[in-house]
Design goal:
The complex is a heterodimer of chains A (111) and B (112). By secondary structure, chain A is mostly beta strands. Helices cover 0% and strands 53% of the residues of chain A. In chain A, the strands form two sheets. In chain A, strands 2, 4, 5, 9, 10 and 11 form a six-stranded mixed β-sheet that branches. A five-stranded antiparallel β-sheet of chain A has the order 1-3-8-7-6, with no helix packed on it. In chain B, strand 4 (31-38) and strand 5 (42-51) form a beta hairpin. Chain B is built from no helices and eleven strands. Chain B is mainly β and 112 residues long. Classes of the chains: A mainly beta (111), B mainly beta (112).
């Protein structure tokens, strides 16, 4: 079974700090997605990366797909309380419909 | 505005009961998924369907079955609920891969 390990599992930081969340696997993915989930809701897509080495920016969030397409990172600059939530990465293997989800990183940003 | 709805937000059932969870999407998507979400385990795929009446097992199909009689509706069935099926159940849909998965709000199921 393919696994996607996320680290850290929990993160509590002060408003204004920077942070990085990692998503690692021994498997190669054709694309990788990042989602944010708030309490009582389903995950919502933030970004999809498809090319090895690709970097995408979404305001204060920067996403990178590893060169070998086995890992990814999410960097948040100057975190705000509104960034609080569960961050999930999900990898898709070429030729399948199945998304493999990471174990999740629960972020809390304190005002 | 795209929408995936799930029949219940919270359910409490007894061990041995048959449980139906329904999911409806209004985006004419081909693919629909059922996941369960447990702390520290992320989302695990139970079943998915890529067309009406077509289904494939995910990673943890034991104890579950599914039905997709209409394109917009995907049902998850727990034939005989057990306490280890207490979890958050999430439904999702996509048009094609690697498109955005649109998730419903989830059903939190407690089996006593």
């Amino acid at each position: 079974t393919q696994l996607l390990e996320q680290s850290p599992q929990f993160l509590s930081i002060q408003e204004g700090e920077n942070l990085t969340v990692y998503c690692n696997s021994s498997s190669v993915f054709s694309s990788l997605q990042w989602y944010r989930q708030e309490p009582g809701e389903g995950p919502v897509l933030l970004v999809t990366v498809v090319t090895g080495g690709e970097v995408k920016k979404l305001k204060r969030l920067t996403f990178q797909f590893g060169d070998a397409r086995k890992d990814s990172s999410l960097h948040i600059t100057a975190a705000q309380p509104g960034d609080t939530g569960l961050y999930l990465c999900a990898g898709l293997t070429s030729g399948t419909y199945k998304y493999i989800f990471g174990t999740g990183t629960r972020l809390k940003v304190l005002a | 505005d795209v929408k995936v709805t799930q029949s219940s937000r919270y359910l409490v059932k007894r061990t041995g009961e048959k449980v139906f969870l329904e999911c409806v999407q209004d985006m004419d998507h081909e693919n629909m998924f059922w996941y369960r979400q447990d702390p520290g385990l992320g989302l695990r795929l139970i079943y998915f369907s890529y067309d009406v009446k077509m289904k494939e097992k995910g990673d943890i199909p034991e104890g579950y079955s599914v039905s997709r009689e209409k394109k917009e509706r995907f049902s998850l069935i727990l034939e005989s609920a057990s306490t280890n099926q207490t979890s958050m159940y999430l439904c999702a849909s996509t048009q094609t891969s690697p498109e955005t998965q649109y998730f419903g709000p989830g059903t939190r199921l407690l089996v006593l």
